[in-house]
Design brief:
With 347 residues, the chain is mostly beta strands. It is 6% helix and 37% strand. The chain contains 3 helices and 21 strands. The strands form 5 sheets. A 6-stranded antiparallel beta sheet has the order 1-5-12-7-8-4, with no helix packed on it. It has a 5-stranded antiparallel beta sheet with strand order 2-3-13-6-11. A hairpin with a 4-residue loop joins strand 14 and strand 15 (246-252). Residues 1-10 have low confidence and may be disordered.
Length: 347
């Protein structure tokens, strides 16, 4: 038997790009930090005292929501912070804040972003010194404020871990505030190629003293509106061929002549095309069979011609009456460079 050999890098890139798992890691803040001041799974950290606090040192404000750790940091290092211009809506994000942030892309239907936050106030309540917590989501063009809390919010409880600097009294606490947003409904022009950034921020109002604090936990993605697959410069069709009931598989990616392609199939049609978690399809045995074929195996893993095209005649006797989904992934220099929209076909 000919051995099945697939470049590990290519397979890993396919899985990363096409799986339905968003690219925010450690949303529960359970993985130990890689180094002091860093947050495992989050690449953008400006907060000087960000820490993954462990419940063994005491729980507080309903944290942790899940697991044993949660993220906490204060507004230390922030001064004259300004709030988002439209709390709860689209507008300019807060400025002069400190933050922890991460960028990600979506695919499939796990598109509802959820997390839990708590705001602990170190300033006098209702004063002009408006320290605040802000959770914001951007798509590279616009920003949506998902949650804004400041010293004019409701504080039904107090912290058991942190005290106000001036009074020595426990910091007032908002308790847990849940954040949930169906991303495609708020960003209707977004596709699976859109890069979003989630930013968790604390701002120190007016001056840089008496920094307030935020708690964050259980950042996750749950089912929502399916995100459209970006069509890119690639498409695949299946049309009748000849008079014997054969079919022509026609793959086109003109921007990538001699590019390497995977044609990835699934017989699981339980969701509409584009709604599945893997390139818009629901993976099954046929999917994994497609991916694990060595290059040169028609029609699964082949090379485009000089015009960026590949055609293959599917005989009429191949599973007549079967309905399946299909999409094409184009690789160049070991990287996925284009993905076709998925199609559904009955043979």
């Amino acid at each position: 038997m000919r051995p099945i050999i697939v470049p590990a890098l290519a397979l890993a890139l396919l899985i990363l790009l096409l799986s339905g798992v968003p690219q925010i890691g450690n949303g529960g803040f359970e993985s130990p930090p890689p180094s002091p001041g860093a947050i495992s799974g989050w690449s953008q950290v400006s907060a000087v005292d960000a820490v993954q606090r462990d419940a063994s040192g005491g729980v507080d404000g309903g944290m942790p929501v899940q697991g044993q750790r949660w993220l906490t940091f204060s507004g230390q290092g922030s001064s004259a912070a300004t709030a988002p211009t439209n709390p709860g809506g689209f507008g300019n994000p807060p400025s002069n804040v400190v933050w922890v942030a991460e960028s990600f892309q979506l695919s499939g239907s796990n598109t509802t972003l959820e997390l839990d936050v708590v705001f602990l106030c170190n300033e006098q309540l209702l004063s002009a010194y408006r320290d605040f917590l802000s959770v914001d989501l951007g798509d590279g063009t616009s920003w949506l404020n998902l949650r804004y809390l400041d010293n004019h919010a409701s504080f039904p409880t107090t912290s058991v871990l942190y005290q106000q600097t001036l009074t020595g009294s426990p910091m007032p606490s908002t308790g847990i505030k849940h954040v949930s947003v169906d991303i495609p409904s708020k960003f209707p022009n977004a596709t699976s190629q859109t890069v979003f950034t989630l930013r968790l921020a604390i701002g120190n109002g007016i001056d840089g003293s008496l920094p307030s604090r935020g708690y964050f936990d259980d950042v996750k993605f749950t089912p929502g509106t399916p995100i459209p697959q970006a069509s890119g410069p690639a498409q695949v069709t299946i049309t009748p061929w000849g008079t014997n009931g054969d079919w022509l598989l026609d793959c086109q990616a003109g921007a990538w002549p001699y590019g390497e392609i995977y044609n990835i199939f699934s017989a699981n049609v339980s969701l509409p095309p584009g709604a599945g978690p893997f390139g818009g399809i629901v993976p099954d045995f046929a999917t994994y069979f497609s991916i694990w074929q060595p290059q040169g195996t028609h029609p699964f893993h082949v090379t485009l011609d000089g015009q960026g095209r590949y055609r293959f005649v599917i005989p009429s006797w191949v599973s007549p009456g079967v309905t399946g989904d299909l999409f094409m992934a184009v690789l160049w220099a070991g990287q996925v460079v284009a993905v076709s929209p998925p199609i559904r076909h009955t043979f």
